[in-house]
Design goal:
Alpha-Beta Plaits; 23% strand; 190 residues; globular; alpha/beta
Length: 190
């Protein structure tokens, strides 16, 4: 049996005390923010860390239109971002002007995260009803959603030009029936 001296026990206790924090809070990392949890859950692409960084900025407040996915992909020093929004189940009443502002803000936020981002694409989708038993994944999958609004913005496009395009529809694909029925009419809500 090994014999331990007081000196060896003291040295062992000192080593253990250095390894164990003195307070329970020091050992427990802070929980992630809600913005980070939402960003991680929605991040996709081969530049996932970039997608998470964009999401963390976008989710600092409640977005009127639900953001479903943040996709960041790229090669070398170029990255491309896709933001997929839901065309239903808005967080309150949303007017066309509010939608335009939200999309412009989301694009600006994405570009601000990294100079490597060359283009931000936004699309809004709505579900397509499918019959029970319909194949929805794999090689023979039927689509489960359709685009009702698409927008591409390249780095360098001014905010004023983007606002004019959003208002006038230049270079934007939109389903006019969706706009007529999904968005609120009149003055935006406060």
């Amino acid at each position: 049996m090994p014999r331990h001296t007081n000196a060896s026990l003291a040295a062992l206790c000192a080593a253990i005390s250095l390894a164990i924090p003195t307070s329970a809070t020091a050992a427990t990392p802070a929980p992630p923010s809600i913005a980070r949890v939402d960003a991680v859950a929605r991040a996709r692409g081969n530049r996932r860390a970039l997608a998470v960084a964009i999401g963390e900025r976008l989710f600092t407040h409640v977005l009127p239109v639900q953001l479903l996915e943040i996709r960041a992909s790229g090669l070398g020093n170029r990255a491309y971002v896709g933001l997929r929004f839901s065309g239903e189940k808005f967080h309150g009443s949303v007017s066309k002007a509010e939608l335009d502002r939200e999309l412009a803000d989301a694009v600006e936020t994405a570009f601000a995260v990294s100079q490597q981002i060359r283009e931000v694409d936004c699309w809004i989708v709505v579900p397509i009803p499918v019959a029970p038993g319909t194949v929805v994944s794999g090689d023979k999958a039927m689509p489960t959603e359709r685009d009702v609004f698409t927008l591409s913005v390249r780095r360098g496009e001014s905010a004023a030009h983007l606002a004019r395009r959003l208002k006038g529809g230049e270079g934007i694909v939109v389903d006019p029936e969706w706009i007529a029925h999904a968005l609120a009419k009149g003055v935006p809500h406060a």
